[in-house]
Amino acid sequence: MLRLAPLLIVALLVGPILAGLVMALLPAFGYLPALGGERLSLAPWRELFAQPGLARSVGVSFVSGLVTTTVSLVVVLLFLTGVSGSRLDRWIRRMVAPLLSLPHAAAAFGLAFLIAPSGLLARLLSPELTGWERPPDLLIVQDPWGFALMLGLVIKEIPFLLLMSLAALPQLDPGRRVILARSLGYRPTTAWLKVVAPTLYPLIRLPVYAVIAYATSVVDVAMILGPTLPPTLAVSVLTWFHDPDLSRRFMASAGAVLQLGVTAAALVAWWCLERLVSWLGRHWIDRGARSCAELPLRQAGKSLILIATLTACAGLAGLALSSSAGFWRFPDLLPQGFTTVHWLRALPSLSGPVTATWIIAVSATLVALALTLAALENEQRSGRRPAQGKLLSALTLLYLPLIVPQIAFLFGLVVVMESLGTRPRLGLVIFGHLLFVLPYVFLSLSEAYRRFDPRWMQLALTLGSSRQSAFWRVRLPMMLAPVLTAAAVGLAVSIGLYLPTLLLGAGRIATVTTEAVSLAAGGNRRVIGVWALVQASLPLIGFIIAVGIPRLLWANRRGLQGAP
Amino acid sequence: MPIRLLAALPLATMLTSPLLAAPGSADWEAVLEEARGQTVYWHAWAGDTRINDYIDWVKRRLREKHEVELVHVKIDDTGSAVSRVLGERSAGNHDDGSIDLIWLNGENFAAMKENDLLFGPFAERLPNFALTYPELNPEVITDFTLPTEGYESPWGKAQITFYYDAAELVDEPPLSMAEILAWTEAHPGRFTYPRIPDFLGSTFLKQALIALTEDTDALYSPVAQSDFEAVTAPLWEYLDVLHPRLWRSGRQFPASGPEIRRLMADGELTLAFTFNPAEPAAAVAEFLLPESTRSYVLDGGTLGNVHFVAIPFNSPHKAGAMTVANFLLTPEAQARKQDLSVWGDPTVLDVARLDEEDRARFEQTTDNPALLAPEALVDTLPEPHPSWMTALQEAWQVRYVGR
Amino acid sequence: MNGQVHPSLELRDIVIRLDGKPLVALDGTVAPGETLTVMGPSGSGKSTLLAYLAGFLPPAFDACGRIVLGDRDITDLPAERRGIGLLFQDPLLFPHLSVAGNLRFGLPRHMPDKTTHVRRALADVGLSGYGERDPATLSGGQKARVALMRLLLSAPSAVLLDEPFSMLDTELRDEMRHLVFSHLRAAGLPSLLVTHDQKDTAATRGRVIELGG
To answer: By its UniProt entry, which SMART domains does this protein fall under (chain C) (predicted)?
Structure first.
């Protein structure tokens, strides 16, 4: 059974994606007999290219993907150059997990509340500093260039890349390397950039690619913060798919394939950028400069990451304020009064989606956890380890759902399911969530699992335990903390998923995320505040449980506190 | 001829029964009996929490009264529901569709009817439909010039209503399209309309077109029968001048009517409009808009229409869906819907002809200065043929998207 | 511990290869109560030998020869059924279990009266009353003694010792050496010790084999 786990995982991840892509590709060339498309043709593409504003949609998608990734990566690397044990550093590192668990949509709402012309920031400065008695007529949120979109994505991608880097760093022993370089006369920041960064990058390359893919094709954040005339490509594709005129589905499929191309193009562009930077970097290292803008770089890293973190927190505070605000005119910084009426009104309609969210998240996470544990345990028992850091390894397949744009294969998948006669049901949504939960659970657990001292299991066996019982009696309890953390990551991923829930659930299955995003169009900040806060708090509850259970269970076991 | 597949026998037998079923009649009792225990998936636009809360109330009442479980499938674009039914039919799903009831009108109704995606005729079979007195109120059986033929059941009414903050706009508000243009020149950035294809935004285009075009008659027959360019030329000229004077200089538009209301609340706009004549008054009552808010309609009237609910041909719970549609037409549900503190959507019932007890339900208790005078709604312009809406939306997008 | 007579540990023509090249070759018998010491520089294959005997040889290696305990050929048995106990450099007390829980871990599943066995074992090494303690609160020497008792309670038929004293303080080392080997001898267990330390060999009073070099 155990031996089948890796195969099952690969089949589970690759199968639906391939099927979905094929069912996007065929209609893109006019073939979908169910809708009367019997012959291959280029008509969908002609129609697609005749869409007003297409070039702009494509441009914004492409550029926002690259800019988001560059900014996030640079900020994370700069922060890491100067990371020390200071209180601020520790605080930022502690904020990583909760920030990562914050659903993208909630972060986007928070940012919108913060930076909108009538948002918290403008209220803070008005009217004293700005002279604004009413909100300025400024195009900030949903700007046509996608700056707000990029900002919103950067805030969410920084914690992701930071966590991935922090997980990879220990294998590089950065402390000793930097000391060695400093003994050769290099200043600390330069030393880090020259001896740690070049070896760190290959270890976080796949997460970086996942960021590019996500940022080029995101739907929910783009609906909240992205441009509208036209929207980004992924959002346009979604509207075309939902057009009452079914013949538009062919064009929408072509759009989905185009999205795949845009993401691929962004990845290729990034790869070229990688070559260029590595070439420049080698020269820079060779020239042997011992110092370069030490303090400014370090300060920049620290302050940028601080700004990003604080922005996310301030956004959440804005959500909380809005959700309990009475009458609140511009430019009052605080509402004239507070009220619970928005919460009380939302309460009856909250319970259904909250329950559905939990059922989906817990089921998908449990399945993902079981498969991950089975695959990792099998790997331990067979003594084989997959190659790491290489682009073409089993690990890449794990990243497939994170690198192929959701919109490119999910619609195809819906068509496949429809033709298989599968009706939208909770199970289908859970299956769809599994595609995204599984990679994250696997990635967050595998390092800890592989680093677990093999002697514990050997000891258990020589004391007469079977492998089965050693797993339950030794490995699982000792790895409780990382297992629960992986589960919390899985929950957070599932709770934040928008498109898979929307499409596979046929809109019938409402989670807090789909509800929050659908309320966005209404623009009622009070209600959005309530929903976004609920959305943000659910994964946090997961993390609190993940941290709390081991502490509670092992309260009298010093050896397990602060363990892996 | 389309083949209509019927879910259950009692309904099939009903097709042959007399068109009008009296309350308490055996036919209707059979429907209620069949509906008991069914779960009805109602796809309804969910951009406004007041509407969602009202539907929640309907859900509770249906559970108590008829043991029907109503699920509000919240959608942000009714087109997506139409597309889903079409998709199901093309996938060969003729009797187990995922949608039982849709809130719609205009071009979505036209599209579904044209593609034979609707179950019916069923409206005349709902006992409460008689309370609308269709022979006296033809708007409840006409949807954007098309006769409904019983394939949808009326639910509520809408009419373009302008509102403004009298504390800021002390002079008389602009009363025509031409005056709006002049007003925006004096007050740049203080007015806007929702982004096309939002239905309120599209309705604004039609309102403007009716006021500006020389050939109004052309709008009441399919767009293919007239010279679109010539008829709409004055509209584009108008918008080209108007846009730079709008909110965000016309480079960005709000997503929907509720967002416009939010912009009014934040003080970003001075003049706005809605499709729900009671919305400004309701928003004042909820402290969302200042008490100085006033409502009015343009000289010569504004566009108005009725919105409906319809049942897809492949709904597996047609009896349940009909029970819901009938409940929506009860004086209890209609009065609550019209209540300013709930939703404020005008009733489709002929209140004057109700019995005294039911008539009392509709009496507004609040004397709200933001509320539109009832006589203002007399000037209702009929909706153009639905094909105009689609054509205008496409033309607008070609002109203004990606600039 | 209970003076029961154990079979001898026979290692018949054992050769362990890495990439086809022989790394370790060994042939001999360890008598009950005897400790055979294996010495050699790092890389000479000492740890590989222990891993092989215990049943954890990594797949990169291949080995031939037979491991026989009395009349049982255990070469192809999985680790948990070989009856070979291990003592590591660290005491490796399970951090999630109490001291008593650690001791109970090795006891056969349905053994009656586990508590008495555990209490007796603790008394044996002077740790009476320590049963409910968190292992993390014990001193180095106490941990080592618990690890030894845990090993013996699991009733192995032979014992492998992987530099068991190298992590201890110098003064503790002598004490532990005495304790470990006297218990092994008293239990009549055949054992194999891998070490760098000449003093260890002296304490075993047994034969010494040099690997590699």
So the answer is: AAA
The count of other CB atoms within 10 Å of the CB of residue B240 is 12
Question: Quick check: B127 and B20 in contact, CB under 8 A?
Answer: no
What percent of chain B lies above the pLDDT cut of 70? Answer: 92
Report yes or no: B291 at the A interface, CB cutoff 8 Å: no
For the entire predicted model, the pTM comes to 0.84
The tens digit of pLDDT for each residue in A11-64 reads 888 899 999 999 889 989 988 877 777 888 899 999 999 998 999 999 999 999
> Which residues fall within 8 angstroms of residue B210, CB to CB, at 6 or more apart?
B216, B219, B303, B381, B384
Mutation to test the A interface, candidates B199, B245, B287, most A Cβ within 10 Å: B287
> A229 contacts in B (CB within 8 Å)?
195, 251-253, 400-403
| CATH number of domain containing A507 | 1.10.3720.10
Class of residue B246 by CB neighbours under 10 A (exposed 0-12, middle 13-18, buried 19+) = buried
State how far residue A341 is from chain B, nearest Cα, in angstroms.
Answer: 10
User: Which A residues in the span 530-559 are in contact with C, Cβ-Cβ below 8 Å?
Assistant: 554, 556-559
End-to-end CA distance of chain A: 28
Residues of C in contact with A465 (CB under 8 A): 80, 105
CA triplet B19, B22, B24: central angle to 5 degrees?
135
Is B9-156+305-365 assigned to CATH 1.20.1250.20?
A: no
Contact (CB<8Å) B267/A508: no
Task: Give the range among A39-43, B24-28, B256-260, B264-268 with minimum mean pLDDT.
Answer: B24-28
Residue ranges making up the domain that contains C187: 9-97+140-210
The contacts of residue C22 (CB under 8 Å, 6+ apart) are C15, C16
Q: Which chains are adjacent to chain C, needing at least 3 Cβ pairs under 8 Å?
A: A
Q: Residue A101 belongs to what H/E stretch? A: helix A87-101
Residues A357 and A224 in one domain: no
Taking CB atoms and an 8 Å limit, are C88 and A474 in contact across chains?
A: no
Q: Do chains C and A touch (3 or more CB pairs under 8 A)?
A: yes
A482 in any annotated domain: yes
Nearest Cα to Cα of residue B48 among B309, B269, B343, B267: B343
* Residue A525 belongs to some domain of the structure: yes
Subunits adjacent to chain A (3 or more Cβ pairs under 8 Å): B, C
B159-304+378-400: CATH, from 3.40.50.1000, 1.10.150.240, 3.40.50.10330, 3.40.190.10: 3.40.190.10
Question: Looking at A180-194, A420-434, B94-108, B293-307, which range is the least confident one?
Answer: A420-434
Report the pLDDT averaged over residues C71-93.
91
Query: Alpha-carbon distance C148 to C191, whole Å?
Result: 13
Please tell me which of the candidates A139, A244, A507 has its beta carbon nearest to residue B82.
Answer: A244
Shortest distance, CA A91 to any CA of chain C (angstroms): 28
Would the CB atoms of C78 and A478 count as touching at under 8 Å? no
Q: What are the sequence ranges of the domains in chain B?
A: 9-156+305-365, 159-304+378-400
- Contact list in A for residue B96 (CB cut-off 8 A) is 423
Chains A, C: CB contacts within 8 A come to 75
pLDDT reported for residue A419: 74
Contact of B73 with chain A, judged by CB distance below 8 Å, is answered with yes
Q: Which residues of C touch A467 (CB under 8 A)?
A: 78, 80
- Dump the DSSP string for B172-189: PPP-SHHHHHHHHHHSTT
ipTM surpasses 0.85:
yes
**Residue A512, domain member (yes or no):** yes
- Partnered with residue A283 across adjacent β-strands are none
Neighbours of A416 (CB within 10 A): 16
Last residue of a domain, one of A309, A339, A369: A339
- Boundaries of domain holding A365: 342-402+427-564
Question: What residue spans of A169-232 are helical by DSSP H?
Answer: 174-183, 188-195, 197-217, 220-225
